[in-house]
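idk why but the lab printer keeps eating my pages so im just putting this in chat instead. protein + beta-D-glucopyranose:
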Amino acid sequence: MNKKIIGLAAASLLVSGAASAAIPANDAEKARMDAFITELMGKMTLDEKLGQLNLPPSDDIVTGQAIDSNIGAAVAAGKVGGTFNIKGAAKIRELQRIAVEESRLGIPLLLGMDVIHGYETVFPIPLALSCSWDMDAIERSARVAAVEASAAGVNWTFSPMVDISRDPRWGRMAEGAGEDPYLGSQIARAMVRGYQGDNLRNNDEIMACVKHFALYGASEAGRDYNTVDMSRYRMYNEYFEPYRAAVDEGAASVMTSFNLVDGIPATENKWLVDDVLRRQWNFDGFVVTDYGSIGEVAVHGLEKLPEASARALDAGTDMDMCSFGFIGTLKEGLDKGTVKMETIDRAVRRILEAKYKLGLFENPYKYNDVKREKTHIYTPEHRAEARATAAKTFVLLKNDGKILPMAKKGKIALVGPMANTAANMPGTWSVAADFSKYKTLRQGFEDAVKGRAEILYAKGSNIEEDPALEAAVSAFGRDMRDSRSEAEMLEEALKVAAEADVIVAAMGEASEHSGESSSRSVLTLPATQKRLMEALLATGKPVVMLNFSGRPTVMEWESKNVPAILNVWFGGSEAADAITDVVFGDVNPSGKLTASMPYNEGQIPVYYNHFNTGRPKNPANPAYQKFSSNYFEIPNKPLYPFGYGLSYTDFEYSDFKLDKDTLGKDGAITASVTVRNTGDRSGDEIVQFYIRDVAGSMARPVKELKHFERISLAPGESRTVNFRITPEALKFYNYNLDFVAEPGEFRVMAGPDSERLSELPFTLD
Ligand code: BGC
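predcted complex ->
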């Protein structure tokens, strides 16, 4: 664990947790765990064993009634291994009490939740978080989430979601870290460390669950739950890395994905779960299915529930989320001989190990200290952390005439459907959020400029013209539709704009435009909002666009017509203040894109680390080129590339060099570049290094991110940033899936984004 983080946690975040069991650190501890579980399993009936493999939904119970609820009765009968998404320490404690005191063996429950980007203190959506490129901040965000969730009784989070995706039509891109395997792997590690802390020793450290294994982000056409089909070469080099990194960092559980892998649903894919995850990566935690995915096997066109359950168990999946296939059919399989007792025992052991590692056998109420819930959730320290982190995630896409930052003076028109909504600030998958506690952007602005400037507000338009579509993207209590006509709303907005010196347009997607089952085929600003934007621009006043989005959106028209664009994603519970901080220049924006922003939907998938083709377009000539790989209408490159983002200051790169140009088998080359802040305010820059393997035994990407550093520079200050290149950084999985570095010519590149790069050659001997 990163020492800096421990320091911070100890000072402001950690409660002194009761020391208890943890992920075994040595053979003796492991032997003690094994002996304990062997003894316990010796007492269990088959039904009790199958109960441990069962993860039913909780249907969020009410305190005191747990025993009467379906889940309470099932827990008392020993038919439940865990449940999830219950909010409230008292409710959870009551359910745990039933498990411990009323079931025959008193085995405690796993209590999960989708704590994806925070609990009540909500951090930006994971895609936004990744744009900070700040591993310490990301680790701390997971740490805060663990402190809060554990204080509310949760001991297991269904996070990190590490699915690489290059398709912004897919709404779940919001939950991941974008398109790059290297950056995604660093983030996966940071999040596991943040959640699991000191190996689950303390009562504010919760078990991570890496998901969705595997390849879920490659759903065809960006339609959620759709088919995935890809080569092993691509799996290993581009999609597997973040899962592997999370496992390597010690993630205690893994969730399978809904999609097919090689024609077989991931949940019952033995090659994937048993061979890759367990044997190749030495994963020794447990595997849970995604929601109902064993039941979906038949719908995919394979076996019915009993056979799918047997096959999933045999593949190495241990816990059944909501299909009731394990508890309902494995016994029958045992009688028929399609299921083996030792396979059931293997899964049961893994679930019990997880409970042991969490310390639940020592103290089943380890996570049920109801007092902590009052003192450790949504604290000022957590909120300050979320606010500071959110400000690092916004990406300044354009700032003509340096309209931003704005002065806190005069009259500012704040217009747009996202300007006055608290419920839309946190973003998708904020299960434990309490919208009543969060500020709207309007409140954030008003607080910040009080006594100095005037904020004139008008909503201007609805999110979508079609009420049914607006309802769909405003799920989970986020509905805010205005019953006025478009013309009435526009008229009000123009009145306000006419009075103002400058216009800030808070627009874009609603919270549930992204997330699960939120695929879009059109990624432009919804038409009603675009009409509002056109009218605002026609006033001739300066316009700043704040683009709310859970994915890269299509911004070609805006990039030509709107002078300043700040992409603010969904910034969490403190988003309003964080956006205000950046708009008025108290914080200098530093976020950089982790997913390419396409010209239009027809360009998807577009990503920086692509192969070259045999007929690449000549980059010196932007015109269409016959018999080259290109489009008639648009360039090959995205509108805004991976790694791109502006600042209120300017950075100059110089003196890019290598200390030598030949790399030996055990040697290293140091690449260095000097970065200077040439502007007049302090700022953070994310310095990026890429590598190209020029002639491999297989086609290699035109560039791959291999190193980055986030640095802070005062005006006039410069710093030299180094990248130590070792043969390890040059390795890839070859045709035989061996991880090798092949001798030959390479190039290393350095710069502020994946396009503006200086390049130098070197050779691996
Ligand atoms: C999602 C998972 C989530 C699970 C439990 C599923 O629908 O795909 O990401 O963890 O539900 O809520």
